[in-house]
Amino acid sequence: MKVFMAVCMLAVAVRLAAAIVVPSAAPCALTVGFYNGKCGNVSVESVVYDTVKAFLDADKSKGAALVRLLFHDCFVNGCDGSILLDNSTTNPSPEKFAGANLGIAGLDVIDAVKAKLETACPGVVSCADIVVFAGRDASRYMSNGGVNFDVPAGRLDGIVSSSVDAQNTLPDSKADIGKLIANFAAKGFTPEELVILSGAHSIGKAHCSNFDDRLTAPDSEINADYRDNVLSKTCKSAPNPTLANNIRDIDAATLGDLASYVVPAVGGDYLDNSYYKNNKNNLVLFNSDWALVGSNATLQHVNEYAENGTLWNIDFAQALVKLSKLAMPAGSVRQIRKTCRAINY
Ligand code: HEM
Ligand SMILES: *[C@@H]1O[C@H](CO)[C@@H](O)[C@H](O)[C@H]1NC(C)=O
Ligand SMILES: *[C@@H]1O[C@H](CO)[C@@H](O)[C@H](O)[C@H]1NC(C)=O
Ligand SMILES: *[C@@H]1O[C@H](CO)[C@@H](O)[C@H](O)[C@H]1NC(C)=O
Ligand SMILES: *[C@@H]1O[C@H](CO)[C@@H](O)[C@H](O)[C@H]1NC(C)=O
C-alpha cells in the first residue's frame, strides 16, 4: 500500500507520491488566510461559512454539534480530522465509536463542505482545517456574531483514529474537579481555560446516560426541582433520551417554576455566558459542569464570566484558537484526504 505522507512545513505543491520519513518534530506553521489564492478564484473560508450557515438556518442543532466536533477532533491526537473517519476493515474501531463520542454529529456538514471544495480545487483543503473552520463559523452563528475570530490553517489530515485513544483522552462528564483539571492540563490548558471552554455547554443537548449520576446528587450540588422534575422525569421518558444542556432551551411546561431562572437570549439556543449564571444557580446538567462551582480555584472564574459576557466571548474565542493549534504527534503520517470519512490509498 502506498501511503502519501507530508509534514506541515511542506507546501501542498510539493506533494510526493513516495513516502517521506519525518525524522524530527517540525512545528506546524499554521497561518491565518492560509488558503487565500490556493483554490482558484474560490474563497475556501467563504465556502465553509456559507455551507455552515445554510445547514444551521435549516437546523440549529448542527451548530452545537460542530462546536463539539472541533473540541473532540483537536483534543484527541491533535486536530487531524480523526473524529471523521469511519470504521473500515483495517480500522474496525475509530474514535467515533468511543462512548465519549456518543451523540457526535455534524459530519454531514463537513462532508458537504468537502464535496464543494474538492470540486473547486481537488486535494487542497484538509478535513482537519474544515472541522476547525466549521467549528469557528458555528460559534459565530450560534453567538449571533459575539464569538467572532480569525483562525489559522494549514493542518493536514492524519490516518490514525482509535476509539480507545478517544475514550482515554476525552473528559468524562462524571469526573470530579481534580480529574478535569488534570485532563485539561495534559493538553496544556489551565483551570481557567477549563472554565472558559465549558461555557460551550450553553448550547446543545446530552443523553441521560451522561447525567444520570446527577439524579442522586445532593441538594447542595443541584437544584432539587431541576433534579427531580426535569432530569429524573426526562430520563424515565424513553431509553436514554436527550435533554437540552441549557435550562433556557427546555420547554416551559417541563421547566415549571424554574422558568424564572432562565437567562433569556434572542432566539434561544444561543452561545453565551448564561452557562455561568445557570451554574451559580445549580442548574447545569453534568457533574463536570457543577464541579466548576464546587471548587474555589474555578469558582472565581465562573463568577468572572457570569458577570461579563463580552469578556467570555473574547476569552472563548482565544481558547478555541488554542484548541485548534493542538498538533498531531511528531512523525505522524499526514495527507489531504479525498473524502473526510476515509484515509487515502
Ligand atoms: C470539561 C469537560 C467536558 C465534558 C466532560 C464534556 C462532556 C459532554 C457530554 C457528555 C456531552 C453530551 C453528549 C451526549 O450525551 O450526546 C457534551 C455535549 C456538548 N459539549 Fe461538552 N464536554 C466538555 C467540554 C466541552 C468543550 C471544551 C466544548 C467545546 C468547546 C464542548 C462542547 C459541547 C457541545 C457544544 C455539546 C452539545 C453537542 C450537541 O448538542 O450536539 N464540551 N459534552
Ligand atoms: C472563477 O473561475 C472559473 C474557472 O476558472 C470561471 O469559470 C469563473 O467565471 C470565475 N468566477 C469569477 C467570479 O471570477
Ligand atoms: C462498521 O461498523 C458497522 C457497525 O458496527 C458494521 O455494521 C460495519 O460492517 C462496519 N464496516 C466495516 C467496513 O467494518
Ligand atoms: C473556599 O473559599 C471559602 C471562602 O473564601 C472558604 O470558606 C472555603 O473553605 C474554601 N473552600 C475550599 C475547599 O478551599
Ligand atoms: C467586560 O470585559 C470587557 C473585555 O475585557 C471589558 O472591556 C469591560 O470593561 C468589562 N465590563 C465590565 C462591566 O467589567
Q: How many domains in all? A: 2
Low-confidence stretches: 1-27
For the biggest β-sheet, the strand order reads: 1-2
Strand content: under 5%
InterPro entries: Haem_peroxidase, Haem_peroxidase_sf, Peroxidase_pln, Peroxidases_AS, Peroxidases_heam-ligand_BS, Secretory_peroxidase
Function: Removal of H(2)O(2), oxidation of toxic reductants, biosynthesis and degradation of lignin, suberization, auxin catabolism, response to environmental stresses such as wounding, pathogen attack and oxidative stress.
EC number: 1.11.1.7
Keywords: Calcium, Disulfide bond, Heme, Hydrogen peroxide, Iron, Metal-binding, Oxidoreductase, Peroxidase, Pyrrolidone carboxylic acid, Secreted, Signal
What would you say this structure looks like, in words?
- The protein has 345 residues and is mainly α.
- The protein folds into two domains: 4-170 and 329-335, Peroxidase, domain 1 (Orthogonal Bundle), CATH 1.10.520; 188-321, Peroxidase, domain 2 (Orthogonal Bundle).
- It has 13 helices and two strands.
- A two-stranded antiparallel ribbon has the order 1-2.
- It is globular, with a radius of gyration of 20 Å.
- Protoporphyrin IX containing FE is lined by residues 64-65, 67-68, 71, 102-103, 105, 171-173, 180, 194, 197-198, 200-201, 203-207, 210, 245, 286, 288.
- One 2-acetamido-2-deoxy-beta-D-glucopyranose binds at residues 87-89, 92.
